Each structure stands twice: as structure tokens, then as C-alpha cells.
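sorry for the late reply, my laptop died twice this morning and i had to redo everyting from scratch. anyway the thing you sent over, i finally got around to it. pasting the sequence first so we're on the same page, its 210 residues, then the predicted structure underneath. double check i copied it right bc i was rushing
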Amino acid sequence: MTTEKTSYESKQVLLATGIREFYPDIKNFEQFYGKSVFYCPWCDGYEMKHRRIAIMVDEMSIDHIVMLLSNWSDDLLICTNGNDVLTEELKALFDSKGYAYKDAVITEMTGQDNQVESLIFEDNTSEEIGGMIASMKWDTDYESLKNLDVDRDEKGQIITDQFGETSVSELFVSGETKANFARPLINAAADGGDVAKFMIIKRLKEDFYK
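ok and here's the structure:
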């Protein structure tokens, strides 16, 4: 392994670099992200309870996240950001719950003191909100992996065995690097501990039984 300053040799390598996160193309998104706009309702955002919460999703599991947030607020705004993910069945379900939904692309967020207050859409309409849960994009396409022939699946996730070892012998990944998905910190850290344990056991067994 080579860094900007030196090189290292090792019998095993564990990559726990996490994921690269990409913001959607929405003006001022970065200003509010992590403060009043969040990705994961299991990790963040409970302070938005009883406010009007916008949900920006771009996949067919939209009803799952809406179900989760129905525990926080009765005033939900589902935003597809221009993606064709709302089936007639979903619209009927959301209508029965009294939830609003918008198909237009979000172009800008406005607010003050890191608190998002409104969404502006491509069709020149706007909606007032008190917070947002937004889907994000990630990858693990790090420069450090460019020269390694690591097997990945069709979604770009690094393929590993049950112990976190990749197709490159003695190269292991853990946590979000292995999942290619944002996870609660405690889960990612626990996975890193498990993979490190398996690495040590593998090395000890090779030395002990040789």
C-alpha cells in the first residue's frame, strides 16, 4: 500500500473507508443537509416530529419510507423529483392517508439558520416544509481500488465471502465499504470488529497448523 509519503507491506489489508456520497442537483441542498434534511430516519431527524416533512425518493420502495415517517407526522409531502415511481396504487394509498405528492423536479431549497423552510419546483410552484428525508447516491469507486481486480455485482457492490474477504486474497472490506450503502455508525463499526476478528483467526490458523 502506497500513500503520498511512504509505502507499506502487509499480509492482510482491511478497507473501512466508508462510501462516497453525492448530493442531488438541488440549489442549497448542502446548506441544509445534516441539519434539517437527512437521509436515514433511523439515525437522524426525530426533531422534525409533528412538522410538515417532505420525503424525496427515486425508487419503488417509496411506500416503506412513507410508512416509517407516518410515525412522526400526519403531514407528509412525497416528492418524486421528476422520477416516475408513483403507481396508481401508491397514489390511492397516499390519498387515503391525506398525504400530498409532487412529481415535479426540485430546483432549490430555501430557509435560514440551517433550517429548510420551502422547496421550489421546476414548474415554478413551491411548498413550505419543516424538514426533509432525502434519498442519496453513493459508491465505493475509490482511487485506491482502481488497480485491484476486485469483483463487484451489477450494482457496484464489492463481492465478499461471509467473512468480508474480497476476490483479491487477503483483501477485506467492512462496514459501509462492504455494504455500498449508508448504515448506522454502530452497525458499521460492529461489522468492522467482526471482519477484523476473522482476519486474525485466519492468520493464526495458517501459522498454527502449518
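The mean pLDDT is 93.
thats about all i looked at so far, will dig more tmrw
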